[in-house]
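Reviewers of the previous submission asked for a worked example of the structure-prediction workflow described in the proposal, so we include one complete record here. The input consisted solely of the amino acid sequence. No template or homolog information was supplied to the procedure at any stage.
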Amino acid sequence: MTGSNQGAHSVANASHTTEALRGAPEPTTEHHKLDLLRFTTAGSVDDGKSTLIGRLLYDSKAILEDTWAAVERASNQRGDSYIDLALLTDGLRAEREQGITIDVAYRYFTTPKRKFIIADCPGHEQYTRNMATGASTSNLAIILIDARRGVVTQSKRHGFIASLLQIPHLLVAGNKMDLVDYDETVYQSIMDEYRAFASKLAVQDVVYIPISALRGDNVVNKTDAMPWYDGPTLMHHLENVNVTAGRNLIDFRFPIQMAIRPHQNFRGFAGQIASGSIRPGEEVVVLPSGKVSAVRSIVTYDGDVEEAIAGDSVVLTLEDEIDVSRGDMIARRHNLPQAADQFECILCWMGEEPLNPQTGYVLQHTTRQVRAFVAELNYRIDIDTLHRVPAQTLHLNEIGRVKLATTQPLFYDPYSINRATGGFILIDPYTNNTVAAGIIRRKASELDEIVPPAAVVRKATNVTWEEAAIGRTVREERNGHKAAVLWFTGLSGSGKSTIARLLEQRLFSLGCQTFFLDGDNVRHGLNGDLGFSAEDRKENIRRVAEVARLAFEHGDLTICTFISPFREDRAFARSLVEEGRFVEIYVRCSMDTVKSRDPKGLYVRAERGEIPEFTGVSSPYEEPVTPELILDTDILNPEESVGRIVAALRSLGLLSHDL
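From that input alone, the workflow returned the following C-alpha cells.
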C-alpha cells in the first residue's frame, strides 16, 4: 500500500522494535528441505500490495538491519509520521517518490513451514506487462481489492492474466477492511462480484480472505475485528497450499544453455531442467538433430547426483559424442515434445508500439530464439466481459488470440500441459525490447493444411496437350538413369546453390542428363516481372515447377534451387511429376550461420527494412515435414552433402549403382 492516506497509524510501535527486524535465523539443514512457494501480488494501484508484502516480511522477521534503516530514512524524507512498510519492496527511487510500484520487486522470506519467493507486481495499467512477468513462474496469485473502491478493471485484468498463465491457486484478498469499519456487507458485495467474474476463468482453486495489510488483520494472525469471518489467515493459506499443483513432474525437458568443455576429458551441457526428472543411464534424444544417447552423469556444484528434477540447474554428460549447442533440447527417447512452426497462441501485448502483423519478431522459447510472424490475429479479448472482439492490432496491455508462424520449428508442449515449454516472449529485433508474452495452446493445424494440388493447377482453355515424339521412358533407357526433380529448399545462405552446382558437376561426370533451374537466374528472365509478395512468390514457384515438369518429361535429372518457403507451393511442384520422382532436399542451417555467410549482404539489408518480405526476417519459412533428404550444412561441407545426395538417388532407384 504505497501512497495511502492511512499514514496516521504507525507500524513501528514498542512491540516491534528495530532489533526484532535484524534478519531471519541462520539457515539449517531442515531449512533447505522446506517446500518453496512462488507467489505474486497484483491488483489496481494503491490496493496495498507492497504494504501486504512489507507486513509479511516484517512479521516473519526477514528484514535486514540496513534495509530497515533505509526504509526509515525514506519515510522521513517523505515527511511521513510513520514507517511505511510498502517501502520494503518499492526499491526504485521513482517508486518511493511517487508512492507507487513500477518494477517487479522480488523478495524472499521463510517460516518454519515453508520458503517463499514473492513477486510484487505494479498496479498501474501501463505496467500490466510487469505483472505478466512476475506471474509467469508463480504457483499462486494474490489479487488485492481495495474495500473502499471494490472490483475495478485492473482487478479483473490481473485475475484473467493469472488464469491465462494457469496459475493453479488464486487468493482474492479484500484489503483495507479497517477503512470500511470491517463491514461484512461491504466485503460480501465485493466477493460476490468477483466470484461472478472468476466463474468464467479457468481457475479451479479460488480463496477469499478479508484483511488489513497495514494493521495486520488476518495477514499472519487472526483478528478480533471481523468475528464474522471464520476462515484461515493469509499466511496460514500460503503455508499450507499445495505447491506441486500445476507442475509437470513427468515430461523431462532440458533446454541447453551452453556446452561446457573445460578440458579434453570433459564435455557437458548446462541448463535448468524445465520439467520432469532424469537419472544417469536413461536414454535421451537431442532435438532437433534426433540423435540418441544416454545420460552418463548429472553434475552439480556439489558433485554428481543420482537424480535431478524440475528447477535444478545441472550439467548433463552423455555417453556419445553428439553435437549439442544452445537452443537445443534434451528429452527422454520415448517421451518427446511436439514440434511445429505454426501455432495457435494467446498474446499479452506489452509493447508501447502496437502489434504490426506486417513485420517479424524474435521469439524466445526456453533457450531457443527464432524469427516469428503473426500470420493471423483472430480476435481481442474484452477484459470486462471476456467477450471476443474483432481487432486489426493489439495495443499495450491488450490480450488476443493469434496464429503464429516461425522460421524454424519449436519443440514445445501445450501450455495447459507444461508451463515451462508452452510459454514464450516476442522481442522487437530493432530495439531488443520485449513486446509480448504468449502461451501456446496447440499446433495451428489449419495453417498446415495443404490445398489439394488439383485445386491450384492452372489450365489454359482452347489448347490441347501435345505428347512428345520421344517418350520419357525411351529417353531414360538411353540415358541409363531415371528422370526426377531434385528440389532444393532452404533459407538464403544455407548452401543450396553451392551444393546443387557441385551435384550437377558430379552427375555430369557420371554421364547423366541434367537440367539446372536456379532461383536468381529465372528472376532475370522467365520471372523478371514478379516481385516478392506472397502472391508473386507463389506464381514464381508455379512457373518454375511447370518448367521442371517439362525437363522431367524430357528424361532429365532436373535440379531446382529455390527458397520456396511455403509448403503448399512445394506440394504443387511435387504434384506435377509421378510419385517417387520428386526428391525434396531440405538444406537446413541455423539463422546465425546463414547471417554469418550472407555473401550478398541481404540479411543486413532486410533487417534494416530495405528488403521487404525477406524470408527468415520479415516473412516466414515453413520447414518441410517429411523431405526425402535433410542436409545440415552447419555440420556437412558441400562435398559431403553431394555424396549423401548421390547415395540417396541410388537408394531411391533413380541412379543405378554402376554409375
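The first strand starts at residue 35 and ends at 43. We consider this example representative of the routine output the project will generate in years two and three.
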